[in-house]
Amino acid sequence: QVQLQESGPGLVKPSQTLSLTCIVSGGSITTNSYYWAWIRQPPGKGLEWMGSIHYSGRTYYSPYLKSRTSISRDTSKNQFTLQLSSVTPEDTAVYYCAAGNNEGYAYWGQGTQVTVSS
After folding, report:
1. Which residues contact 36 (CB under 8 A, 6 or more apart)?
2. Max CA distance (Å), the chain
3. Residue 69 region, left (φ>0) first, then alpha (ψ -120 to 50), else beta?
4. pLDDT per residue as tens digits for the range 32-88
Protein backbone atom coordinates (compact mmCIF):
# COMPACT_ATOMS: atom_id res chain seq x y z
CA GLN A 1 0.00 0.00 0.00
CA VAL A 2 1.57 3.25 -1.13
CA GLN A 3 1.46 6.03 1.42
CA LEU A 4 2.33 9.68 0.85
CA GLN A 5 3.01 12.47 3.31
CA GLU A 6 3.47 16.14 2.43
CA SER A 7 6.03 18.18 4.32
CA GLY A 8 6.85 21.86 4.21
CA PRO A 9 6.17 25.32 5.63
CA GLY A 10 2.61 26.43 6.17
CA LEU A 11 3.33 30.11 5.56
CA VAL A 12 5.23 31.66 2.67
CA LYS A 13 5.76 35.34 1.93
CA PRO A 14 4.74 36.84 -1.42
CA SER A 15 7.43 36.68 -4.12
CA GLN A 16 9.21 33.82 -2.34
CA THR A 17 9.49 30.22 -3.51
CA LEU A 18 7.19 27.61 -2.03
CA SER A 19 8.90 24.27 -1.50
CA LEU A 20 7.09 21.07 -0.48
CA THR A 21 8.31 17.51 -0.19
CA CYS A 22 6.31 14.32 -0.54
CA ILE A 23 7.69 11.39 1.44
CA VAL A 24 6.69 8.06 -0.08
CA SER A 25 6.47 4.71 1.67
CA GLY A 26 5.14 1.31 0.65
CA GLY A 27 6.38 1.69 -2.91
CA SER A 28 9.30 3.01 -4.92
CA ILE A 29 9.06 6.18 -6.97
CA THR A 30 11.38 4.61 -9.55
CA THR A 31 9.90 1.13 -9.98
CA ASN A 32 6.17 1.60 -9.55
CA SER A 33 4.95 2.60 -13.01
CA TYR A 34 3.22 5.63 -11.60
CA TYR A 35 2.99 9.34 -12.12
CA TRP A 36 3.85 11.16 -8.90
CA ALA A 37 1.90 14.38 -8.85
CA TRP A 38 1.23 17.65 -7.07
CA ILE A 39 -2.37 18.85 -6.93
CA ARG A 40 -3.77 21.81 -5.06
CA GLN A 41 -7.14 23.14 -3.98
CA PRO A 42 -7.53 26.88 -3.35
CA PRO A 43 -10.22 27.87 -0.85
CA GLY A 44 -13.67 27.58 -2.36
CA LYS A 45 -12.35 26.13 -5.63
CA GLY A 46 -11.81 22.76 -7.22
CA LEU A 47 -8.72 20.63 -7.52
CA GLU A 48 -5.95 21.90 -9.79
CA TRP A 49 -3.33 19.55 -11.19
CA MET A 50 0.06 21.27 -11.08
CA GLY A 51 2.41 18.68 -12.53
CA SER A 52 3.92 15.27 -12.12
CA ILE A 53 7.10 13.27 -12.38
CA HIS A 54 6.94 9.87 -14.02
CA TYR A 55 8.74 6.90 -12.49
CA SER A 56 11.12 7.23 -15.45
CA GLY A 57 12.04 10.73 -14.30
CA ARG A 58 10.22 12.62 -17.02
CA THR A 59 8.29 15.65 -15.80
CA TYR A 60 5.00 17.14 -16.91
CA TYR A 61 3.58 20.54 -15.95
CA SER A 62 0.33 22.43 -16.16
CA PRO A 63 0.67 25.02 -18.92
CA TYR A 64 -0.81 27.59 -16.54
CA LEU A 65 1.93 27.08 -13.96
CA LYS A 66 4.82 25.77 -16.04
CA SER A 67 6.86 28.96 -15.90
CA ARG A 68 6.87 28.90 -12.08
CA THR A 69 6.86 25.17 -11.28
CA SER A 70 9.61 22.62 -10.86
CA ILE A 71 9.20 19.02 -9.72
CA SER A 72 12.22 16.92 -8.84
CA ARG A 73 12.95 13.75 -6.93
CA ASP A 74 15.48 12.25 -4.55
CA THR A 75 15.56 8.56 -5.31
CA SER A 76 17.83 7.80 -2.35
CA LYS A 77 15.15 9.13 0.01
CA ASN A 78 12.18 7.95 -2.06
CA GLN A 79 10.64 11.40 -2.11
CA PHE A 80 9.76 14.10 -4.61
CA THR A 81 9.62 17.85 -4.30
CA LEU A 82 7.56 20.75 -5.60
CA GLN A 83 8.96 24.22 -6.02
CA LEU A 84 6.65 27.09 -6.99
CA SER A 85 8.35 30.43 -7.49
CA SER A 86 7.13 34.01 -7.24
CA VAL A 87 4.12 33.08 -5.13
CA THR A 88 1.19 35.42 -4.57
CA PRO A 89 -1.82 35.18 -2.23
CA GLU A 90 -3.62 33.40 -5.10
CA ASP A 91 -1.30 30.44 -4.50
CA THR A 92 -2.85 29.92 -1.06
CA ALA A 93 -4.28 26.40 -1.11
CA VAL A 94 -4.21 22.93 0.33
CA TYR A 95 -1.44 21.12 -1.50
CA TYR A 96 -1.62 17.37 -2.09
CA CYS A 97 0.83 14.87 -3.44
CA ALA A 98 -0.66 11.88 -5.22
CA ALA A 99 0.32 8.77 -7.15
CA GLY A 100 -1.43 6.93 -9.93
CA ASN A 101 -1.52 5.94 -13.55
CA ASN A 102 -3.47 6.99 -16.63
CA GLU A 103 -6.68 5.79 -14.99
CA GLY A 104 -6.36 8.22 -12.13
CA TYR A 105 -4.62 8.95 -8.86
CA ALA A 106 -5.28 6.08 -6.49
CA TYR A 107 -3.10 7.27 -3.64
CA TRP A 108 -3.16 10.68 -1.96
CA GLY A 109 -1.42 12.38 0.90
CA GLN A 110 -3.53 14.02 3.57
CA GLY A 111 -2.77 17.48 2.20
CA THR A 112 -0.99 20.44 3.72
CA GLN A 113 -2.28 24.01 4.01
CA VAL A 114 -0.01 26.66 2.54
CA THR A 115 -0.84 30.32 3.06
CA VAL A 116 0.88 33.08 1.13
CA SER A 117 0.88 36.23 3.21
CA SER A 118 3.25 38.91 4.39
Report:
1. 22, 24, 29, 52, 53, 54, 55, 73, 80, 97, 98, 99
2. 41
3. beta
4. 689 999 999 999 999 999 999 999 999 999 999 999 999 999 999 999 999 999 999
